[in-house]
Amino acid sequence: MKRIFYMFAVLVSSISSAQAGIDDAINTATAPIATLIGQIVFFKIPVFGVQLPVVVLWLVVGAVFFTFYMGFINLRGFKHAIELVRGDYADPDSHGEVSHFQALATAVSGTVGIGNIGGVAVAVTVGGPGATFWLIVAGFLGMSTKFVECTLGVKYRKEFEDGHVSGGPMYYLRQGFSERGMEGFGKFMGTFYAIGIFIGALGIGNMFQSNQAYVQLNNVSGGALDGLGWLVGLVLAGVVFSVIIGGIKSIARVTEKIVPFMAVFYCLFAIIVILMNAGTIPQAIANIFTGAFTGEGVAGGALGAMIIGFQRAVFSNEAGIGSASIAHSAVKTDEPVTEGIVSLLEPFIDTIVICTITALVIGTAQVAAPDFAGDAQGVAMTSAAFEREFSWFPIPLAFAALLFAFSTMISWSYYGLKGWTYLFGEGERGQTIYKLIFCAFVALGCVVQLGPILDISDALVFLICVPNILGLYFLAPIVKREMDSYFARIQSGEIKKFK
Amino acid sequence: MSNKILVALDGSDGSKRALSAAVAHAKLTSSALVLAYVIDWSPYSFHTPQELEERHQRRESEIQRANDSILTPEIAALKADGLNVETVVHHGKIAETLLELGEQYGVTQIYIGRRGESRIHAMIFGSVSAALVQTSVVPVTVVP
């Protein structure tokens, strides 16, 4: 409580001081809070002299378990996932309902964010090139976790009388546990998750995004926006406000349409940049592999690289966090397993494809010119790698970053809202309060520095994977049963292709 | 064998002219009528999570609206004339869906109104009637 008062006091007093002072003051006020939250969540245990955050271990063990328990569904289900997205199994009677493709596209535009551009750079800076290898491994394992959580999301969603649906971890945690005779515990877990997602949405899906969008904007404008973070923040918050509160759907719709093209555009140029450095590709790839197992020059060696890789992967593809499960549960299907299988593709697209491409852009640049980025971090580093080949690229990249950030914020405002309505009901006024808080944090994100932002975001997001994965362990046998029955019916021809 | 005529309706004047031409045809050949309204929809479009959540509700209301304002008002008059009429509302790509419906209902003839799009519009978005004429397996009558 004291800290909050302190923050307010600092805020009020700084308004009268110089503009740049506002940014500094908020920074000083938030830094200790960030450190505190970071320390609690990233409680570290020393393993062979390396500090291993318990939470990262928790996620990885879960992903490995689900991969084996579901019999490598991440490999087995891949082809079927593509058939489902293509609509081969779409029932003609469900015309006009949400298709598998749409659910996937929405979930992907929620996960493809600044993490894919900036997060990878952070991983490579801290964990060396080897972190990329572990990032890919984590993406692969994360596919299984995603499968389990999205299947459960659809299976235990709540359908309201007016026909709209709400689903996600809070619902499957509550119902799943109560079906197993642990009603009280289920309620507790559901509530825990709901609180986690609505606070977490303010970090990973909000402050981190607006912060990095501002950094990139400032970067391309040659520092013209220095100290004006509050202004950029207010503008961004205003646009978010107009969409989520003002209900100006056209903005959201335009963004949702542009984002996929931006993602393709980004990948295309990334591949061109990589090819322009073709000579350095073998060395860059070699660095990734040797770095993964030797961890040269990385604090903590190979294990250090691994931890960083895993941490960034989860931050980017959100497997184990349960957010995508909320988006997928809107699909009308009699077979929850189909949504799980489709969701396999998200970590694949997000981490194995897009993050790897970014990592190679940075990796090849590092081989060609080790000091290409100077002191730049995050998005700025990725931007510098592109700039080596295309001097104009930082501008479209800033635009892409802004859009990625924006679409991720819109998606997460929804995820957070679902946590909020789970706790406080579907009342209109409550929803507006939450949305206002969300907008305030968009503005705040542009004002504080990257370090504390990353700490808070990471910490909050990882916190909610604790109840989620615990629930997944308990409910995994149900998913396995459904999955086996589903594949058996495909085999026997009971479930038919319509195309 | 009884004849069946599918009429594509969209509430426009062109589609109303198509309907009256089809009615004349149906009376002459004692055919049954299928009135179809296709709501333009692609399963490959992009939406926000909020839109996904509301999709089912919105689909119901779209179908309801099509029935109430476009199809139902026509039925009474046609039935009074002693015609056998069915109606259908479907989501999908318009030309493609009309063909699928034609097949499903076993129709022998399709009537559609010409929208009179400009050439540029037709070049960019394609013309429904032209697409239908090109791909249909039963005769298509385009009513200007």
Read across the widest sheet of chain B, the strand sequence of neighbours is 3-2-1-4-5
The overall pLDDT of chain B, averaged over residues, is 85
- Tally of distinct domains of chain B: 1
Largest sheet of chain B: 5 strands, parallel
Distance between the termini of chain B: 30 Å
Superfamily (CATH H level) name of chain B: HUPs
SSE-based structural type of chain B: alpha/beta
**Per CATH, what is the topology of the largest domain in chain A?**
Amino acid/polyamine transporter I
CATH C-level category of the largest domain in chain A: Mainly Alpha
Total helix count of chain B?
5
Task: Please give the structural blueprint.
The complex is a heterodimer of chains A (499) and B (144).
Chain A: H1 2-15, H2 19-41, E1 44-47, E2 50-53, H3 54-69, H4 73-76, H5 78-86, H6 100-111, H7 114-127, H8 130-155, E3 158-159, E4 165-166, H9 169-179, H10 183-200, H11 203-220, H12 229-244, H13 249-276, H14 281-294, H15 301-317, H16 323-328, H17 336-343, H18 345-368, H19 378-387, H20 394-424, H21 428-445, H22 450-492
Antiparallel strand pairs in A: 1-2, 3-4
Chain B: E1 4-8, H1 13-29, E2 32-40, H2 49-80, E3 85-92, H3 94-105, E4 109-113, H4 119-125, H5 128-135, E5 140-143
Parallel strand pairs in B: 1-2, 1-4, 2-3, 4-5
Key terms for this structure?
heterodimer; A: about 500 residues; mainly alpha; Amino acid/polyamine transporter I; 2 domains; two-stranded antiparallel ribbon; two-stranded antiparallel sheet; 22 helices; about 75% helix; about 0% strand; globular; disordered N terminus; B: about 140 residues; alpha/beta; Rossmann fold; five-stranded parallel beta sheet; 5 helices; about 20% strand
